[in-house]
Every structure is written in structure tokens, then in C-alpha cells.
């Protein structure tokens, strides 16, 4: 997994990492963590208002502070960009993991997972556009957060598909290309839909659901396995996704299963 922050990791860990044992320093550290989170939420509000071309002055105004105060908690624009990306990942996984792991029949399970993704990009379109563009206030950054999240989800789906393939006595070697293919199709369709909006979210979710199920059904039937799309499988395999947090949240993880 690509590290989200490539600069000054050791210094950031020492400043914002594990508790030091000094009560006063630890209280200050917790205060900084809380303030950073407040500023990230302010940045999300500024994104809603100003779009992906927002600057640090917009974020400071949304937070009700001056830019110098903002820069006490973020090294630079790239640092805030990464923090926004981390928050975006949290929002996505909070919606996506429960949907993927729901104990439903294959077809509604697929539908719920796709709908969770489209719901997130519909609710936070400017955050998605900012992260795809990989720049903040016209300053390029070296973190490709969208690609990292794609890798994270595809890796988790590879394990999930592999578990099911082995359960059905199939060769699990196809799990990885299948996972990356599904994730790529959903993301690319999401890019198109977010800009065009030529159909409703429900419609595009249903089209993708039917396409993905048709592919799965064709593959399993070719191997002599016939599945009812509307009947839950005997065993509900689940996805586990986790990512070590950088900087202030280094010791926290997002995990579900």
C-alpha cells in the first residue's frame, strides 16, 4: 500500500503519534487532533460552497480562524489535501463495508454495495473531484488518494471473491483480475455519471448491478455452478479493510467484518 504522506513522517509521528506519558503533552496532543478534525470538516463545507478550486483562505473562513492559525495544524496545502483524502476514505468505508458484508442474496448485496459508492460521490462530488485532480488551490500534490482507495477495495474484493471461488470448488486465480475489473468499471462509470447526470442514481446503480451479476453468473455456470441471485448463499463471506492512519490518527484503524 502506498503511503499517503511521503514527507516528514518521523517528525509527524513524534508530534502527533502515541501518548508520551506526559499528561500535559498528551492533553495538548488530543487538542491538536480535535482541532485538525474540526478544520477538515470546515474544509468539506468550503468545498461544498467553492468547489475544488477552493484555497486556504476559504477553509480558514469556513473554520472561523485566520490562515496562520490553520497553518499551525497543517504544514501546507498538501497536508490538508491528505487530511481531506483520509476523511473521504473514512466516509466511503463507513458506507461501503456494511453494504458489502450484509447477509443478503447475491443480487441485492451487489446492488447495496454499488449504491453505497454512488451515494458517497453524489453527496461529496467536489471532494471526489478534488482528489481525482490531485491538486489543492492549484498546487499539485504527490498523493493519489483515489488510486490508493481503489487498490484498497480491489485487494479486499480479491480476498472475498477468492473465498467464494474456493467454496464452490473453482480456481481462485481469477479473483484478482475480477476484483480490479469490477472496481475499475464502477469507478469509471461513477466518473461519467458525476459529470453527465444523464440518468438517475438508481438507474445507473441498477444497470451496473445487472452487468456485474451477469458476468458472475456466466463465470459460475461455465464451471457448473448455478446460483440463485435472490437466495442468500449458505456461507456469508465478509470483507475486512483497514488502513493505518498517518499523522494525528496514526494508531487508529478503520476495520469491519
TrEMBL record:
Please list where the region (Disordered) is annotated. Answer: 1-27
Q: Which GO terms describe its molecular function?
A: DNA-binding transcription factor activity; transcription cis-regulatory region binding
Q: Which residues cross the membrane?
A: none
Q: Where is the composition biased (Basic residues)?
A: 1-12
Please provide the record's keywords in A-Z order. DNA-binding
Is DNA-binding set as a keyword in this record?
yes
Tell me which residues form the DNA-binding region: 55-74
Q: Which SUPFAM superfamilies match?
A: Homeodomain-like, Tetracyclin repressor-like, C-terminal domain
InterPro entries attached to this UniProt entry: Homeodomain-like_sf, HTH-type_TetR-like_transc_reg, HTH_TetR, Tet_transcr_reg_TetR-rel_C_sf, TetR_C_32
Keyword Oxidoreductase assigned to the entry: answer is no
Span of domain HTH tetR-type:
33-92
Q: Which domain of life is it from?
A: Bacteria
* Protein name, entry field: DNA-binding transcriptional regulator, AcrR family
Amino acid at each position: 500500500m502506498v503511503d499517503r504522506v511521503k514527507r516528514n513522517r518521523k517528525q509527524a509521528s513524534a508530534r502527533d503519534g502515541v501518548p508520551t506519558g506526559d499528561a500535559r503533552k498528551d492533553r495538548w496532543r488530543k487538542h491538536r487532533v480535535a482541532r485538525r478534525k474540526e478544520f477538515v470538516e470546515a474544509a468539506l463545507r468550503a468545498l461544498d460552497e467553492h468547489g475544488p478550486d477552493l484555497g486556504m483562505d476559504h477553509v480558514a473562513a469556513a473554520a472561523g480562524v485566520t490562515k496562520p492559525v490553520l497553518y499551525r495544524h497543517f504544514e501546507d496545502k498538501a497536508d490538508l489535501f491528505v487530511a481531506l483524502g483520509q476523511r473521504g476514505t473514512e466516509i466511503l468505508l463507513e458506507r461501503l463495508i456494511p453494504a458489502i458484508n450484509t447477509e443478503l442474496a447475491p443480487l441485492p448485496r451487489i446492488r447495496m454495495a454499488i449504491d453505497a459508492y454512488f451515494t458517497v460521490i453524489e453527496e461529496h462530488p467536489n471532494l471526489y473531484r478534488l482528489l481525482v485532480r490531485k491538486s489543492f488551490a492549484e498546487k499539485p500534490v504527490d498523493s493519489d488518494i483515489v488510486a490508493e482507495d481503489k487498490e484498497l477495495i480491489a485487494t479486499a474484493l480479491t480476498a472475498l471473491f477468492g473465498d467464494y471461488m474456493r467454496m464452490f470448488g473453482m480456481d481462485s486465480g481469477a479473483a484478482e483480475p475480477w476484483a480490479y475489473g469490477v472496481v475499475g468499471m464502477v469507478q469509471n462509470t461513477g466518473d461519467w455519471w458525476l459529470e453527465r447526470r444523464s440518468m438517475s442514481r438508481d438507474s445507473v446503480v441498477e444497470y451496473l448491478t445487472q452487468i456485474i451479476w451477469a458476468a458472475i453468473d456466466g463465470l459460475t455456470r461455465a464451471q457448473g455452478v448455478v446460483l440463485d441471485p435472490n437466495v442468500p448463499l449458505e456461507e456469508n463471506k465478509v470483507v475486512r479493510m483497514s488502513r493505518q492512519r498517518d499523522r494525528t490518527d496514526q494508531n487508529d484503524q478503520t476495520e469491519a467484518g
